[in-house]
Amino acid sequence: MPPTQLILASSSPRRRQLLEQLGLKFEVRSANIDESIQGGETASAYVGRVAMLKAVQVATQMPQALILGADTAVVVDGRILGKPQSPADARRMLTLLSGRSHAVLSGIALAGTHQFSRIVESQIDFRVLSRGEIDWYVRTGEPMDKAGAYGIQGRAARWIPRVEGCYFNVVGLPLALVSMMLEAEGLHPDRSHN
């Protein structure tokens, strides 16, 4: 019997909006976990582990529900770029991304009657950014709550000529994969419950 309730274990407004696009009814419950990178941890291991930690933590509070956990990281030169800690940190990240390709990885985890996760990777090309463009973008405030200091769905879209892989993954939730995972667990848009 499929679970009767879907819970998104994330406070991200972007993930909430993306999940709404699938036409599913769900609740949001933020997970409070340590998201520190462990020594020697690869980016894919990191996003997979954090996504599962989020899902499992919320599942302990709601054992009858299906919990969706997600985590996204921007990766360049094998280094994970998290959310900037300051405007100077945002400038540093954007300078690092300027004129290069980088990867965006998302870990997607489901916890319910059993637990499993998947990793999705997209490749992003950034055009060369001038110092003035970077300063302007940082002043907008948009980079400050986003991994890698940019939002592809916002003002930074003007600098991204090419995306290889799932665009929605870069925003924060690879919708095609999430939809397939949820359907495999018996949740469909026309049959989801609150």
Would you give an account of this structure?
With 194 residues, the chain is α/β, with parallel strands linked by helices. The chain has a single domain, classed as Maf protein, CATH 3.90.950. The protein is 33% helix and 23% strand. The chain has helices spanning 13-21, 43-61, 87-97, 131-140, 167-171, 175-184; strands at 6-8, 27-28, 66-76, 79-81, 101-111, 115-125, 162-164. Strands 1, 2, 3, 4, 5, 6 and 7 form a 7-stranded mixed sheet that branches. It is globular. It starts with 5 loop residues before the first strand and ends in a 10-residue tail after the last helix.
Number of helices: 6
CATH fold assignment: Maf protein
* Cα separation of the termini: 16 Å
Main β sheet profile: 7 strands, mixed
Tally of separate domains: 1
**What coarse outline follows from CA principal-axis ratios?**
globular
Mind telling me the C-alpha Rg?
A: 17 Å
Structural class: alpha/beta
Low-confidence stretches: none
- Any guess at the CATH architecture? Alpha-Beta Complex
How much helix, percentage-wise, in residues? 25-40%
User: What is the count of β-strands?
Assistant: 7
